Write the structure tokens for this entry.
Amino acid sequence: KTKHQLGTTFLVLLKPDQADSGQLLRQQANDFKAPVAGRYTLADDVLTIVTADPSLKLEERLWFANPNLRMRTSLIETADGFSVASFCSEIRRGVTSPPEKN
């Protein structure tokens, strides 16, 4: 039995002189439409990704509150005015801190 793949692939277009912002392409798994163009910024240790097409705008913000705790907010807005906002906190278990240097 074949398992369906879920997820999103990002292609980040880097420019050496602008490491904290730039363009990207987003492709959903099993979505055969053209990839969606967007932008990313990295400021104050927060990664913000914004992608949009004629029917949908997506803004995600990701940051680490500490080495084992990642926070994520998402805002989705559709062309017909529908909006969804979400917040997630993700805890990595079993990760130990690196040893302190003497």
Summary: The chain has a mean pLDDT of 87. The beta strands are 8-13, 21-28, 36-43, 46-53, 56-66, 69-78, 83-91. Residues 4 and 30 are 8 Å apart (CA to CA).
